[in-house]
Amino acid sequence: MRTLLIDNYDSYTYNIYQLVAEVSGTEPVVVKNDACSFEELAVHTFDQIIISPGPGRPERAVDMGLSKEVIEKARVPVLGICLGHQGIAYHFGANIVHAPEVMHGRLSPIYHNDDPLFRGIPQGAEVVRYHSLVVEQETIPKDLEVIAWTKAHTVMGLRHKTLPLWAVQYHPESICTDSGKRLLTNFCDLTRSFHRNKVAAKCQPPKVDRSPSLIQPSSAFQVTVKEMPFHRSEAVFQTLFSKSKHAFWLDSSKTGDAARYSFMGDDAGPNSHVVTYDTSTGILKFVFKDREETRQESIFSYLKRQLHMLKSHDEWPFPFHCGYVGYFGYELKRECNNVTNIYQADTPDAAFLFADRMLVFDHVDEKMYAVCFSGKEDRTLREAWFSEIENHLQNLKDPRTQTKKGKPLSTTCNKSYQQYCANIEKVQAYLKDGETYELNYTTRLRTNLDVASLDLYQHLRRVNPAPYAAYMSFNRLSVLCSSPEKFITIDRRGHVCTKPIKGTMRRGSSPEEDEQLKKALETSEKDRAENLMIVDLLRNDLGKLCQVGQVRVPQLMEVESYQTVHQLVSTVTGILRDGVTAIDCIQATFPGGSMTGAPKVRTMSLIDSLEGESRGIYSGAIGYFSLDGTADFNIVIRTIVLEEGRATIGVGGAVTVQSTAAGEYEEMWLKASALVQAMEEVSCK
Fold this sequence. Notes:
Residues 500-522 are annotated as: Disordered. With 685 residues, the protein is α+β, with helices and mostly antiparallel strands.
């Protein structure tokens, strides 16, 4: 069965793709709603067409694009979902009006008239709704029949009485919708019935680029590992790398199953170099030991080629075996989502260090390893470096940060309270008009702070220990990160995991209050709706690259507790298709949906108009690409960017229709509190 899936620039389209591929046995052909005309598509044979959800209104041609032509001209079964549902109703004469209540990421029971589309779906099945507009029931023409509704009689499903057109207002593809797969199975059955006397065209799945790299893997290098006596990572970094011009410390300062390893190193190795990237010019800048170079090339294509060329097949008891470590800044959205950047960051849009020598800390087994990537003939150099590390470890300085009562800093916010609240109200208007389901609105806090960046980081990791923390130094630029949020991990078998955080609550002053606040977060409809929307978005992003039926949600909206806050956390996993690399996966999912909102593309353009400046490193991702094909990146939150005596903190949160301006402002300062505390402590020394 050949399915055409029209993507109205929604962030849930590939959840539909995955479900349809499962139930029909063939993968749909996905076409953006502005990619071509209906006539250009007409040369192909499709057995059925699905019109995806999307932002905007069906009355606006730019929001519907090709979807409008399909409704007008298609003569095969069509299923419209959300915006597609409204588009079908509008085309035949119904009015589209504001809903009595905005329903973004919220659940409702629905009822139906036993239409074949709902065969096997129980009355009162819970479904997820992402809409602020509805079909006005009083204006539905006689050609259309209402086949599903809510308790409040909001229209949830339609069918045309004589044409093969069906529509549902809710999202059958959401992880929390009951019987979503059943509905799409029924639609496929309706299509088979429609074509009973026809021979369905054989579907060809979307092509994945599996062409070989122009550069073949090198066999002249090897990764060598030597176990060292275990020491505290803080003391080791202070002794070995604190004076390095370029250095990294991927620091599991809050250890546990989710954060077993820490990694550190610098640019002292003979093969090490630093590469930075400016997305506005497309220029890479390289810093080697003896020279600097520039090149016109995307950071993604460069990293992909290098990692292919240096591919290692060795297996070690830890996941990072040398490779590229650094960050992607938020403005790389331009190259990942084909969107325009209104603002340019002051910092590089990406910065990576090639780590050919590094130290690994296994905090569970209390083991430490020195890892060296070098030429196979360079045994003398390797042994000399291992000996140097052993000598340093015998003379460690053990820094101990002391808690001090800090003096208040003059921290300025780039938005006044009045401006902040006014922008929250603008977001609420966008939500009510269907332009976005959820928008992550952020602001910047800045202060003058002439301190040693490592000293400040040592205070931060004590005040706010986090499983995905990091300290990175790129000459005069330092990144001090205490992130609790995993963006994405890819192992050497292509197994992918992402852990979005949406929903924050302060810790209580007593065990009893703490438990009450934890329970309040766990049951908050607002926070659960925020989290659900991002879970569905990440399922969509992984669904673009993962094998059919392999995107799963093993953990949905569970509370994890950190030093200063409780967080609502989910886990989404998948298995990549053959030939898809870690670079492909990062590029397809960046920036993390928890930092944008949904639908991602439309929402990012709204963010630019509201925030009025670039985000830079904040909202991006810090992590590594290992030579064996693995990767691990965080979401850059709870982070101080320090450059030339100026500290910048990005902070914000998801805004939904259930948000209040005062509540969002309070949450913003709650998230910044640990960072401000660390800066105040170190400023009084």
